[in-house]
UniProtKB/TrEMBL annotation:
Keyword presence, Membrane: yes
Membrane-spanning intervals of the chain: 41-60, 80-100, 106-131
Listed InterPro entries: DUF6691
Protein name (record): YeeE/YedE family protein
Keywords: Membrane, Transmembrane, Transmembrane helix
Keyword Membrane found: yes
Biological source species: Halopseudomonas oceani
Amino acid sequence: MRGLIALASGLLFGFGLLISGMANPAKVLGFLDLAGAWDPSLALVMAGAIGVAFLPMQWVQRRGTTLRGEQAQLPTSRTIDRRLVIGSLLFGAGWGVAGFCPGPGLVAASALIPQALLFVAAMLLGMWLFAQYDRRVKA
């Protein structure tokens, strides 16, 4: 049952990305083009997502458990450190260059769009490289 809930949630999320146009890198790059033909629709999608998630997140934070009664895994640190800043800069640069972030990139890759497949391959390589680096630093 847990797998079916995860599958349904993922499909709903993916369809939402498709319907909103967020799996289209031109739409994302239009949002990031503040000096040109700026497209504010991504901000509206983000505001809608925040609105939908706000009350459930408040509930989970108060109870500390999910709807299924499992322990919620919420971030505990509020520290802005070098790792967070560098990771954020890399994420933003990749988003600005490719027009994809992980969710929309995976949705577009599932449609076998070449740019998305390249993005997902680069994302997986970056995750692997970070895991190798992090393992060495913590050792």
